[in-house]
Structure formats: structure tokens, C-alpha cells
Amino acid sequence: MEKKGFLIDMDGVIYKGSEPIPGAVEFINHLRDKGYPFLFLTNNSQRTNRDVCYKLRKMGFNVNDEDIFTCAMATANYLASRKEHGTAYVIGEGGLLTELHNIGYSIVDDHPDYVIIGEGRTIMLESVDKAINMIFNGAKLIATNLDPNCPVGNGKYRAGCGAFVAMLEFATGKQAFSVGKPSPIMMRMARKILGLSTDETVMIGDTMGTDILGAGSMGFTTVLTLSGVTRESDLAQYGYAPDFIIQSVRDLLDEELFSRVLLQQHGQYAYMQEFAGRNAE
Fold it and tell me: Catalytic residue positions?
């Protein structure tokens, strides 16, 4: 059996709202008990990895702060590699601000090196206007992710980071650079954190346009779970496909399926529709 490690999306994969998806706690704790390396990836920049870890532990997941990698962390790491001790004007919340402070960046209100956009529940038009003028004056536009919306539970959504980025792009004529999924930057960082090669990396996600697209383009084995936003009927509209399709991560507690994932070489596109259908009955 080849060495494998797992990159795992969160909302829609291991929990919905404040409740774990059935079988998710058992699956994650199984990975921990068996020594399989894993890392949670999230395109939500609002909270720090410590905050996210606290939420997961309350649900029963055996995880540590180091098991979570946010798009805010990826953005900060990228900026640190581009310019040390830079300055930023930030439209976002605590998770993003914390990561920028951790790399030595200063948060400023005029002439920043970068305008950085993350999730925000209280974004004011005044902040957007300031950002527009800063971009016109030479600040570079960075997005933690380009998700157009975010689920908030009970079938409802709120505007995502990508919606605000689109407004700034339209107003300034400048295109943002995004670091979050499906960017290869975040995917590569996550793989390196686990110390894995491309062939050793498995991505489990519920979103075709971020999780599966990003991981598939990197050559990772991809597992699409139908417990989140993607439905099986949606797959026909995409020009790419996951290697495996499951109903939920509970399916991966099946030893036969789990072994097939571990042995999978990306590109074979081993559809598991028959397995998903059997478990849905």
C-alpha cells in the first residue's frame, strides 16, 4: 500500500453548520488513529486555525491547530514570499488580520502595498471606496479566494469574498490575484506541509469548481462527496471529473473503497457511482 495523505475540505464534507456529517467524526479519528497525515483546507478567512480547531473539537474531532490550513494563512505565506514587512489595507476579519500580523505586515489606511479582500459580514461601502482609490494609486489587489457566495445553513447563502472582489475589479479595471482554492499556490503549500508528493496526495471535497478543479489540476487523486453543494446531476456540465464519487465520507470507512483510494493513480477516473448508489439505498 502506497503512502497517502489527505487534504480535506470542511463545510459540506465533515460538517454542516454546527453539526458533523454522519460518519465524519469516525472517519477523521480513524485517519488519526492509523497515522494517515491529513490537513483541512478552508476558503474561509474569517477565523484563525485555532478558532476552527476549537469548533471541530467541540464536535468530537480529534484534531489540533496544525491540522487546519486557511486561505488567510496561504495568502499571508504568499505575501511574505513576495515582499517582507509590507503594508496592507484589509477588508476582512480577525483570521486574515492575525495572519498578516504574524508575517510582520502592517495594516494601514493610506498608500498600502496591497489591498487584500477576505470574508466580511460588516463590509461598508466607505471601505470599498477607499480600496478603489488605493488600487488606482498603485496598490495591488489580492483576494483570499474567489468564492461568489457562502452557505450559512438552512439553505441560505451570503455574499462571498469573490462577490466583493468582482465589484473592485469592475470599478478599477484591475484583476485580483487569488491565493485560495482552486489556486495551485494553496494546493502546493498544503501538500508540502504534509510532506507528500503529488502521487501521495488525496483531496476530498464537495465543490467541483474549487476542491476538485484545484486538486485535479495539480495531479492529486480527487474524491467528490455529494454531502455538500454538488449533486450528481451537476457533473455533466463540467469538462473534468473526480476520480471517485461518494455519498459522504462515511463511505470511506468501507475498507475496500478506502484501499482503492489509496491505490488510485490520478488520471484513471475510477468512478464509484455504483458504490455511492449502493450506500444511498
Answer: 9, 11
